[in-house]
Amino acid sequence: MFPSRKDLLSTCIAISAMLCVAPAAFAAVTSRGTAVVWPIVYSQRSGTTTARHTAVQSVRETLEKGGFTLISQTVAAGTWKHLDLREPTTDRPATTSDIVKFARAVHARYVVQPMFRFHTRSIWVDIGPRTISTAFVTVRITDASSGRIVYKRVDVQGRSDAKTSILKYAGAVLITPLVTAVSGGPKTPQEQRAVQIAVAYAMHDWVHPKK
């Protein structure tokens, strides 16, 4: 049985209505651009393997929260190696020409270059030993279309024993909750929490730019 002319007309109107509202619906999730987090530098060989992973993941989370489309770390690492670009260090960051060449190869507009440094120590307080970690984060974001650094934060600090007021701040840019670190426990959770806080501070104004 074939649909009536009335049914066909109703269907056409419904489809037309969907087409009209679709652009508005998708506008809310429009990406702010494609970004890649690479190259990555760890200062003075600091930070445990887990803390380093948390550091990079935290940067990626802030970009996701900010509406950026991300290139995978596997693609980033493989492309950098394939292009035979020089590995940067704390004293010699990647050159602008290398960054632009890399960005074009992975089809990213923004290249986010983070550097992480961890300092963990044990201090004695009245109730016994206490482990504290401080993470320092430097971020440079280059717009490959212009070859200019459009965002930069240097040695932004985060401490594992930061007050609870940081929770709201971190929640504005991070997806994963802050790691719980026991005062006298191992250093890895301390470093994880510290670097999450430092990344939240360093990336906040990029995720939520001032108007």
How far is the first residue's CA from the last residue's CA? 59 Å
Main β-sheet: number of strands, strand sense, barrel status?
Answer: 6 strands, mixed
Counting DSSP H or I runs of 4 or more residues, the number of helices is: 6
Low-confidence runs of at least 5 consecutive residues: 5-28
Q: What order do the helices and strands follow? A: HEEHEHHEEEHH
Number of strands: 6
> Structural class of the helix and strand makeup?
alpha/beta
Describe what you observe in this structure.
The chain is globular. The model is unreliable at 5-28 (pLDDT under 50). Strands 1, 2, 3, 4, 5 and 6 form a six-stranded mixed β-sheet that branches. Helix 2 (49-65) packs parallel to helix 6. It is α/β, with parallel strands linked by helices and 211 residues long. A hairpin with a 4-residue loop joins strand 5 (128-143) and strand 6 (148-159). The protein starts with a helix and ends with a helix. The chain contains six helices and six strands; from the N terminus they run αββαβααβββαα.
